[in-house]
Structure formats: structure tokens, C-alpha cells
Specification:
Elements: H1 2-5, H2 8-12, H3 17-20, E1 23-26, H4 42-46, H5 49-55, E2 59-62, E3 66-67, E4 79-83, H6 90-102, E5 106-111, H7 121-128, E6 140-141, E7 161-163, E8 170-172, H8 187-201, E9 207-210, H9 227-231, H10 234-237, H11 243-253, E10 261-265, H12 271-277, E11 287-289, E12 298-299, E13 302-303, H13 308-319, E14 328-329, H14 339-342, H15 351-364, E15 368-372, H16 393-404, H17 409-419, H18 457-462, H19 467-478, H20 482-486, E16 488-491, E17 499-505, E18 510-516, E19 522-525, E20 534-538, E21 551-554, E22 559-564
Helix pairs in contact: 15-19
The protein binds 6-O-alpha-D-glucopyranosyl-D-fructose and calcium ion (CA).
């Protein structure tokens, strides 16, 4: 295994805390409700800090907690220096931050500066007249032939342009019309962003997850898109000419002055541009979320089939990056379906085994793992039976367009049951109490998954073989383990249709991971001499490991971690 034993890269990585630690994303609206109004809040998070500590995560990424009218559940910010009233107060935020720090847990917050809310004071001023000093905080253009300035589409349905204000001009909004895009060409606007970033950094936050950051630079000619591009507008939106210049300025003026981590949502960027953004020699951002793995098979809102070799190839690419880049590893977030439903098998027979397998995949790959609330207890997709059960503005905004395109409501509902963003937003299931113990109230802002009676934290903490305890054990194995963190990655069976098997070779130890990502019993000949490997952990009861012969008999969704010194 020549490639696996090449330690040159291993030795040349620059050590960073954010390369070695594990992130846990909290979507505050759905995490825990402490005041009984059915909406998650910061006091609810505070009440569960010991839970996070017990799991053993190192960093929390908090989805937007800022004042917002919630047109897009907080991704439409009305005041960047104020906590959303539904979530609590700035004192609550400070108490949460202090509570995390006391437990040695860092906090990164969501930086949403491609757009603001249309209710932000800046936009209210900007819209009021063409010569208002805030006019150019946003992007206004005159209409053409009685319509919008060009044919750009919004991700949330309809045109990306909305007419407003006394002089009939249009403003640009890539997302909802209540999310007007900020004009990064305007140096005054950029300084406003840097100032709000310093406000939170000076409070002690440890970095930012940057919402759709590649979209901030726009082609100032605003040319029409052709038919093919209209199917994937993000590729145009993410290729603006000044992105690297803006990120470098942000780094120079703000980020370089703090010991922080930044991860950019690299939605729509080309691999080459993603590499440039995250090259540590370029002082832009540290990490990027690429969507190829989490959205595998996605064709807009259709979910097409995919094969395990295709998925494995998407893990091999980032792990082959040079030592100036560092991957992120994630299978879910608040915009994507539950991983046990998409990548595992959420049937009663295999939900637990496959969720534990996915835990091993996430925590033994090369890169910074980003876990998402609820995946550690194997929460599943929600069984939507009608469109009025969805909350997601992306669905509501696109519904009529999809119907008008001739797709049947039955087919659209079936596809949304595979990949709607709401699957990840149903309330965290804490116990078998009503509403999953998420709230003391008599309702929740979004329905609780009916499987909360068996799928919940309380049951998981009591069960030594639970998904939670498997995550906890893997986090213990991984913590500070430089061989597992920085070790060379090598897929030993890339073409196998059911087995995902790879090694991680560090200076002192090599790990072997063998995952049966199928519902079949599989006999797997590793093809390598593993006779000095010992079994470290497995997600099912296995007899003595047959590793010495190299011939493994793997049960459905069986996951094994071996090591050799
Ligand atoms: O694919 C998408 C759009 O069609 C969505 O997954 C999502 O809009 C995209 O990944 C960008 O997501 C981020 O920005 C959005 C917000 O709705 C998402 O929640 C956020 O993660 C606008 O702020
Ligand atoms: Ca609440």
C-alpha cells in the first residue's frame, strides 16, 4: 500500500485546533424549548450543555441566533448585534458562551452577510430613495422592458429581482425577497460587516460558519443566464470576480487578528475555487463545506440513485489534497435529510446499526467532522403526508413553479420526503414524554417525529449499545489521536459495491475501517495482510475477528475499526 505509507504529507501538516477537534451543529429553533412557547431557545441550549460535554464534542456551531423576522428561520437578519427575541437575550447568549467555555467547548456562530433581512434598518433606508446614503448597501437596478433587469432566478422561487421603493427600481435577492443581497462592491458596507464580526469576536466567539459566502461577489454586468445555467444558477452566483479579494480583505482586517476558525459554505463553487479559498497560504478562510457528498444524487429537488463507489470517490478526492488544505467531513446539516435515512437504513431492523456505522465513517475519515444535532441518537426523516406540514420557505416558494412544470403533487411530495430541509429541523427528541420532551408547552413550531417514543436521548443514555454511546466511544478514540486525525487515507476497495474499507496511516499506528454499507451479509477479502491488526470497536457483537485470514464475514450494516501498532 505505497500510497498509504507515504508519511510525507502527514509530517507536513501544520497543526491547528480546528483540524483536530469535532464540531456539533445546533439549530437553536429545534434544539430545546425552555420557556414553553414551542420554539427552541438559548436557555434550552444552556440546560443541555452537560449533555454536549458528555457526548464529547469540542466545538459548537450555532445556526443564526440574531434578531430576525424568520422569513428563512434566522437566515434573514434584521439586527446583527441583537439576539432574536424568541431565542432570548444577550445575557442568555453570554451565559451560554460562558457555560461552553467552562466545559472547554468552543463556539462558532453563523455569519450571514451575503444578504440581510428586508426589515434591517439599512434596507429600509436604502429602499426609501435613490439618494439615501444607504442606497448602495444593496443592489438596485432599473427594470428592462417593464420587467426585472435580467432573468436570474431566486433559489426560493421566481425572479431574483423585486421591485420596491418610490422610483420603481428592482433589488437583487438570491433567496427570498425578504433577503435582499448586500452590495459588497461598497467599501462602506464591507466595513459594516467587519465591524459586526469584531463585535462578536470581542465577546469571545471562536469563529464563523459563513453562509453562502462565495455568492458575495456579483458580475456587475448582470448578464442573462442560458437555459442550462438556469438549472444550476449557483454556479454563476458563486463565480463572481472579486470573491478572493473580499475574503482576503476580511482576513487581513479582521480574522488574522484573532485565533479563530472560519468555514465557508462553498455552495456552487468550482473545486478549483474552493481550493483557492481554503489554501492556508492565501489568508482567506480555513475550511469549506463542499456539497458533493451530502447532496449526492440530487438533481435540484429530485433525488436520483447513486452507487457506493461514487460516494467513496467523493471521500477520496478531499483526502488527496496537499497539506495546505484540510477537508470538512459531514453527512448532514439543517438543510439536508437525516443521514440514517439517506446513507443508512432507517427501518427498525437496521436504524441503530447503520447510524452507528455512519458515526464510524464520520469520525475516522480525514478532515474536521461536523455532526448535526439528533444524528447522535439516530433521528430519522419525518413522514410528511401533506404539503401543509412543511415549514420550509424553499418549498413554499417553489411549489407553484414545480406544479406548473407538470410534476404531480404526489411525485413532488415523494421527492420531498427524501430530501426536504425540514427533515433536519423537527424538534430534538429528548425523551418519550409528549412532544419528545422538546417543550413543556402543548405544541411545537414544527411537528415532532412520531418515533420520539423510542428514538430519544433519555433511552440512548440508558442503553450501553446506543448510537449516542457509540459516538461517545469513537470521540474518545479520536480525541488527540494524531495518527487517526492526520494519518494518510487509502481506500482499499474503491470499486466494491457494498463495502467501504480504508486505512489511516500515521507515524505510530495504522487504522483499518471496514464498513458494510448494505443490508446483505458480505464476505470481504481485504486483499491485504492484516494479521497484526487488533479489533478496536465494532457496532455489532462479533466473534473473534477473522482479520488474520483477511477474509471478513460482515453482517448487514456492520462497522469495524482495527488498529495495528
Ligand atoms: O440547496 C439549497 C438551495 O437550493 C439549500 O440547501 C440552501 O439554500 C443552500 O445550501 C444555502 O444554504 C444557506 O443559505 C440559505 C439558507 O436558507 C440555508 O439554511 C443556509 O444554510 C440562505 O441564507
Ligand atoms: Ca422557547
Amino acid at each position: 500500500m505505497a500510497a498509504a505509507s507515504d508519511l510525507s504529507r502527514y509530517q507536513s501538516y501544520k497543526r491547528e485546533w480546528w483540524k483536530e477537534q469535532v464540531v456539533y451543529q445546533i439549530y437553536p429553533r429545534s434544539f430545546r424549548d425552555a420557556n414553553g412557547d414551542g420554539i427552541g431557545d438559548i436557555q434550552g441550549i444552556i440546560s443541555e450543555l452537560d449533555y454536549l460535554d458528555r457526548l464529547g464534542v469540542d466545538i459548537v456551531w450555532l445556526s443564526p441566533h440574531f434578531d430576525s423576522p424568520n422569513a428563512d428561520n434566522g437566515y434573514d437578519i434584521r439586527d446583527y448585534r441583537k439576539v432574536m427575541a424568541e431565542f432570548g437575550t444577550m445575557e442568555d447568549f453570554d451565559q451560554m458562551l460562558a457555560g461552553l467555555k467552562q466545559r472547554g467547548i468552543k463556539l462558532i456562530i453563523d455569519l450571514v452577510v451575503n444578504h440581510s433581512s428586508d426589515e434591517h434598518e439599512w434596507f429600509q433606508q436604502s429602499m426609501s430613495s435613490k439618494d439615501n446614503p444607504y442606497r448602495n448597501y444593496y443592489i438596485w437596478r432599473p427594470g428592462v422592458d417593464g420587467g426585472p433587469p435580467n432573468n436570474w432566478p431566486s433559489f426560493f422561487g421566481g425572479s431574483a429581482w423585486q421591485q420596491a421603493g418610490p422610483d420603481g427600481e428592482y433589488y437583487l435577492h438570491y433567496f427570498h425577497r425578504k433577503q435582499p443581497d448586500l452590495n459588497w462592491e461598497n467599501p462602506k458596507l464591507r466595513e459594516e460587516v467587519y465591524s459586526l464580526m469584531r463585535f462578536w469576536l470581542d465577546k469571545g466567539v471562536d469563529g464563523f460558519r459563513m453562509d453562502v459566502i462565495p455568492l458575495i461577489s456579483k458580475d456587475q454586468d448582470f448578464p442573462d443566464m442560458d437555459a442550462e445555467t438556469l438549472r444550476h444558477p449557483e454556479t454563476v452566483y458563486a463565480s463572481g470576480p472579486r470573491l478572493h479579494e473580499f475574503l482576503n480583505e476580511m482576513n487581513r482586517k479582521v480574522l488574522s487578528r484573532y485565533d479563530v476558525m472560519t468555514v465557508g459554505e462553498a455552495f456552487g463553487v468550482s473545486p478549483a475555487r474552493a481550493l483557492r479559498m481554503t489554501d492556508e497560504r492565501r489568508q482567506e478562510i480555513d475550511l469549506a463545506f463542499l456539497f458533493d457528498i451530502v447532496r449526492i444524487g440530487r438533481d435540484n429537488w429530485y433525488q436520483r440513485d447513486w452507487t457506493l463507489p461514487q460516494l467513496k470517490g467523493l471521500f477520496t478526492m478531499p483526502s488527496a489534497l496537499d497539506s495546505h488544505h484540510w477537508p470538512t467531513i459531514f453527512l448532514s446539516n439543517h438543510d439536508n435529510p437525516r443521514p440514517v435515512s439517506k446513507f443508512g437504513d432507517d427501518s427498525p431492523a437496521y436504524r441503530m446499526a447503520s447510524a452507528r456505522l455512519l458515526a464510524m465513517l464520520l469520525l475516522t475519515q480525514k478532515g474536521t467532522p461536523f455532526l448535526y444535532q439528533g444524528d447522535e441518537i439516530g433521528m430519522t426523516n419525518y413522514p410528511f403526508t401533506a404539503f401543509d406540514q412543511f415549514d420550509d420557505v424553499e418549498i413554499k416558494g417553489n411549489y407553484q413553479q414545480v406544479m406548473d412544470s407538470g410534476v404531480s403533487a404526489v411525485e413532488y411530495l415523494a421527492e420531498l420526503n427524501k430530501n426536504s430541509r425540514d427533515h433536519a429541523r423537527t424538534p430534538m427528541q429528548w425523551s418519550s414524554a409528549p412532544l419528545g420532551g422538546f417543550t413543556t408547552g402543548d405544541s411545537s413550531w414544527l411537528a415532532v417525529n412520531p418515533n420520539y417514543k423510542t428514538v430519544n436521548v433519555e433511552a440512548s443514555l440508558k442503553n450501553p449499545d446506543s448510537i449516542f454511546n457509540f459516538y461517545r466511544q469513537l470521540l474518545d478514540i479520536r480525541r488527540g489521536n494524531l495518527d487517526l486525525i492526520y494519518g494518510e487515507y487509502y481506500d482499499i476497495a474503491p470499486e466494491h459495491e457494498q463495502i467501504f474499507a480504508y486505512t489511516r496511516t500515521g507515524r505510530n499506528r495504522t487504522y483499518l475501517v471496514v464498513l458494510n454499507m448494505s443490508g446483505d451479509e458480505v464476505h470481504f477479502a481485504t486483499g491485504h495482510d492484516f494479521n497484526n491488526y487488533q479489533l478496536v470497536i465494532t457496532n455489532q457483537k462479533v466473534s473473534r475477528s477473522q482479520i488474520a485470514t483477511g477474509e471478513l464475514a460482515l453482517k448487514p450494516w456492520e462497522a469495524r475499526l482495527y488498529q495495528s501498532d
